[in-house]
Structures are given as structure tokens and as C-alpha cells.
Design a protein that fits this description.
Number of helices: 5
Helix content: 55-70%
Number of strands: 0
Shape: elongated
Structural class: mainly alpha
Number of domains: 1
Largest sheet: none
Amino acid sequence: MSDKEPSDTGGDNAGVKVPPPLIFLVLLLIGLWLDSPWFEFRMAGMLPTIAGAIIAAAGLTLILASAPRHKQAGSNVEPWKPTTAIITTGLYAYTRNPIYLGMAITHAGVAIAGASTAALANLLVAVIVIQFYVIAREERYLEAKFGQPYLDYKTKVRRWV
């Protein structure tokens, strides 16, 4: 398939309609709403607040270090837009999905900071949705579009970590 040909999603994109950050955010907020002291206008304990903030900062760092690589490569970070390049440098040399990994780590950090067991449980739901709704579509699209170079990249670099 050439860069100009449409994919089986009806266009030159992975066919993902719901923004992945929205998936994480909605599930995080539902979890926090269910059992976080934040929704009672109280703080969580000092230890979970500090630990969660550190973990969330690490996740945000992954996102901020990875997302600009798309623009540098002349490609799009949004999965509903065409991908024009396989990015294999920076964090992409260690994980095929550093942005989603960063979102998952950020979700975990906020859930911990908010002392929310439900938000932590929803992280599993978010990762499953991202895995099967987003990443699976992206991988089919990238395999069809880039062929062997993408398959070679997949054999060298793990999906998550």
C-alpha cells in the first residue's frame, strides 16, 4: 500500500475515532469520582500525594519527550490522521508506544495521589481499551502501510516496555 492509498478504515489512518487521552481521562475521572477524597474536597495522605505526583510527573515526561518526535519526523501524533513515518529513535527505540505508556503511568500516578482504588482498577480497563481498540488498529494500519520495515521494527521493539 502506498502513502496515498486508503487503509481498510476508509482513509489513510488507523481508524481510531476516540482520542486515546480521552479514554484514559474518562476512566480516571470515573474512578476518582467513585472513591477519591478529592471529590469530597479533601486531600489524600501526604505519602500517596507525593508518590503519585512523582509517578504522574514521570508519565508526563514520557509523553512530552515522545510527542514532538512525530512533528520532527513530519508525521501526525493523532491516530485519526495519516502516519507518514515510522519513528524508531528516542524512546521509540525502547517502546513502540511511549505516549500510551506515559498516559498509563500518569493515570496511575494521579490515581495514587488521589488515593483511589477505583481509579487504579480503571487503569486496567483503560489499558485493555487502548490495547484492543487503539493499538491493534494502529498496528494493522502500519503493517499495511509500511510493510516489512514496520514488521522489522515490531520484532526489535516491544509494544509497551
